[in-house]
């Protein structure tokens, strides 16, 4: 059944049936900055803004495959070529999107690969920090097992994504992490002592001991504090990128998230906003195969995450996340495009979570041990990068053992110091959200103090907290002066 349309017939029929308006961009507002005549109150004031934005969206949709003589449907989203064929898009492309790689498994450069050159100094710094991350993970993990900290989460297997992406950014770029990216902080100069202070929740922790271990953050280093609810950082990053754009800063926002994070609505809203607002941002998805015990096959049916970029109108690439040179080169190029063209870029880095999800997880319960072993040994990103720097004669066994021995010593020292530092004041648990403490929080604070007093053995003894000893009736009498008294004491 062939149907023949003419451009005018189609347009007039749709107009008549749907009551829609089809306007060419030029007819919408030839000069978006010249306000239309106010018609009535608020609406009149809003008109220039609304029309100005609509004009842009029409512009954005213009296709490149419309040729002279084609039958075309002109609609507010742009011009589309018409087709007499009823053709559904297939649910997937015939071929999966390929993965950009520079180093093979044995650390040898793949012939013909394009990558950004790095100096010996930079390569050694990158390698040393990947090792630092490994040693840090081993020691903090052991500290958790010994009961010295309450929780920990390693980045084992994802050292290249952490360090090589950090190396490709500048310190002005604002980072919004998920939680498996402490390597960026490390690269920016967060000390082992600062990591230890946060994990031990002591007085020197910038979060004042109010967060679980690994929820690092640093104002100074442009690294937003880790937030437990998955994917909430992604729209925040887009907002920050928009503000960088408005302030015309020579920087971008960069946000990290896992494959699991892409199943949250926040991911989709953020991608769409970033594309429509043309903001300088890099989205890096660490597709490590698992969201705790949920495999990617239960997260999405699409060809991974990279294909979603195009659906939102975002330039995208899939890379080997265990190849430090590929990560460095791709993030470097992405940053250039994001900043100079003011546009979002999506990077899907394929990797594997080679450790348990966290200290609350045992991944051998839901995945084969030999698969974990394979990724931990022959596919380890740090070992691969070491092979490359050794081939260049930039590294040897003596350097390796000196580095690891020193790091171990430094970390053990940092832990010992962190453990001895006082805990933050109990009072701090309730501050920094409201200017003035609301009554429900004051009540919670009083209740907590009463509980600690009643059951001292159930609470840590190293939280400095002087008790307000008072009987219930006396407390009642003094209620009005309580806040003043309390805030001066503790
Ligand atoms: C909104 C929300 N839902 C569920 C959780 C529980 N949770 C914590 S981590 C996680 C898995 C996230 O997986 P992924 O994004 O792939 O990151 P990965 O751990 O693999 O690095 C889940 C479901 C949470 N923290 N927040
Ligand atoms: Mg994951």
Major β-sheet annotation: 5 strands, parallel
Radius of gyration over C-alpha positions, nearest whole angstrom: 28 Å
Bulk shape: globular
Number of strands: 9
Average pLDDT number: 85
Classification by helices and strands: alpha/beta
User: In what range is the share of β-strand residues?
Assistant: 5-15%
Sequence of strands across the biggest β-sheet:
3-4-5-9-8
Spans where pLDDT lies below 50 across 5 or more residues: 1-60, 466-490
Helical percentage: 40-55%
The ordered string of helix (H) and strand (E) elements is: HHHEEHHEHHHEHEEEHEHEHHHHH
Keywords: Metal-binding, Mitochondrion, Oxidoreductase, Potassium, Transit peptide
GO molecular function: branched-chain 2-oxo acid dehydrogenase activity; metal ion binding
Main location: mitochondrion
Subcellular location: Mitochondrion matrix
Structural description of this entry:
With 490 residues, the chain is an alpha/beta fold. 44% of the residues lie in helices and 8% in strands. It contains 16 helices and 9 strands. The protein has helices at residues 7-18, 25-28, 41-60, 120-145, 159-168, 182-188, 192-200, 233-246, 265-277, 306-312, 324-340, 369-376, 381-391, 397-420, 439-454, 472-489; strands spanning 72-75, 78-81, 174-176, 253-258, 281-287, 290-291, 294-295, 315-320, 344-350. Strands 3-4-5-9-8 form a 5-stranded parallel beta sheet, sandwiched between helices. Strand 1 and strand 2 form a beta hairpin. Helix 4 crosses helix 6 (182-188) and helix 4 (120-145) packs across helix 14. The longest helix is centred in the N-terminal third of the chain and has 26 residues, at 120-145. It is globular and about 85 Å long. Residues 1-60 and 466-490 have low confidence and may be disordered. Thiamine diphosphate binds at residues 180, 228-230, 257-261, 286, 288, 290-292, 353, 357.
